[in-house]
Write the structure tokens for this entry.
Amino acid sequence: MTSPALPRAGAGPARTALLARPGGVPVGLALGLCAAAAIAVVGLVPLDRLPFSVCLFKAVTGLPCLTCGTTRALGRLVRLDLAGALAMNPLTTLGIFGLVPWALADLALLPWGRAVSLDLSPGAARVARITVVVAALANWAWLVVAGR
């Protein structure tokens, strides 16, 4: 008779699941509030129209950083110019739109002390990591080519 296999310590879930975890930290809500605050500031103070770049990385290397164009993208979102926002920084713009449902779900779950949690299987986690790296590199390539 063999004993049942014990799960490895630190092993991820066997399958991918989107959960409303009790006692979870509402990360989506916190990030959503930060994004809303940034959009409000850019809407009130025309930071997206400065005649100079404030990017230290760009000043030193001559290349845009991974987030170059974010302030200008937020400024265009304030003016409801989706195409302009995507042109300034596609990853930031798409990230903002992906953040909205996550923040709203966390807000809806807040009264019950729950938060959205995504448990990824090891295979799905690997795909997610690769996707994030490829998206960041593709966005950076876009920023370099576009001269942000």
